[in-house]
Amino acid sequence: MKAVLLTGLRQAQLQEKPEPELPEQHWVLLRTKVAGICGSDLHYFISESVGGEKVPYPCLVGHECSAEVVRVGSAVRQLQPGDRVAVEPSISCGVCDQCLAGRFHTCRKIKFLGHPGELDGCLAEYFVMPAGNLIKLPPSITLEEAMLAEPLSIALHALNLAGLGPNDRVAVLGTGPIGLCLIMLLRHQGLSQIFATDRSEARVRAALQAGASWAASVEQEDVVQEILSRQPLGLEAVFEVSGDQEAIDQSVDLVRPGGRIIQVGIPVPERVSYQIARLRRKEVTIINSRRQNRCLEPALELIQDKKIEVSWLLTHRFRLEEAQQAFTTAADRLDGVLKAAFVL
Fold first, then answer.
1. From CA 141, how far away is CA 11, in angstroms rounded?
2. What is the pLDDT of residues 115-137, one digit of tens each?
């Protein structure tokens, strides 16, 4: 089968790999239909080390996807060949202390689709997953929407952690696809004071389209000064969705005493720093948001019920043969890209 492998720093190559076998009787062979390039995939493309872990090139990444069932294991009853499915990329053991506490996303033995060293990803013609990780799609949800339900689920999990009130004022720092999903969810929840920032002018415009009440580029304005001029007491919550140190510093400046910083973005370095004196004096709570926990199905329901419109986020479509161009476009934010994906 054809597969896109990251073979080194800023190198994405199309190669041939054997079609995967079903490892157990409850697993399913899937044909990839739409596979998005996530920001975490880009980390492995632009850096040889992510979070202190060396990237083991070559690696087959990708976890945002929709697929078609090709073959099912002998124990699978709920799916059959030809079914269209959304994919929950996280496989948890179900028996450790974390799983028994309902924290499946922090399972002690977790395996994640497309995480180097755990499972080969979906940037290939075929991949395998347990049947319990697959959600059969209704006819009303497109394959592209099903792929976009995964980043929407990440945003939904972060929103659930934040514990916002109806009149809270918030900021979203970083308006890639997950940040844009957050803005749409905040609007859906009824919040009206939503401040958004990004480096990309295209993503600033997208933030306004998603429902931000104010948005600006950090390259063009002093965004902290501009936001605090409108909200002098600060904000109840700041979602840091970029992983950049500059945005982390801005979150400390923007949050009001007793407020919350929700860390959604994944920093590439192993360590980042916070202005601890300011955090302590303001008694700020920092909430780390880890992927998502059983939020894919609710995200799909929001899409099916037309409460959140995600299809406009997919701006660039590529074939597997265009792997290098796809990763370069997404990593360098070329041509106004929001979400880039492979469509098979």
1. 33
2. 999 999 999 999 999 999 999 99
Rounded Cα distance, 65 and 293, in Å: 17
Query: How far apart, in whole angstroms, are the C-alpha atoms of residue 279 and residue 310?
Result: 35
CB atoms within 10 A of CB 11: 14
Q: Which residues of 37-51 are buried (b: 16+ CB within 10 A; e: fewer)?
A: bbbbbbbbbeeeebe
Helix axes 245-254, 223-230, angle to 10 degrees: 20
Cα separation values, 244 from 155, 248, 255, 265, 271, Å: 18, 6, 17, 8, 11
Domains, the chain, in order of start with CATH, read: 2-137+310-343 (3.90.180.10), 156-288 (3.40.50.720)
Over its C-alpha atoms, the chain yields an Rg (Å, rounded) of 20
The encoded tokens of residue 341 equal 């994906």
Q: Would you state the structure tokens that stand for residue 302, as one six-digit string?
A: 């929001």
Q: What's the mean pLDDT in 10-26?
A: 97
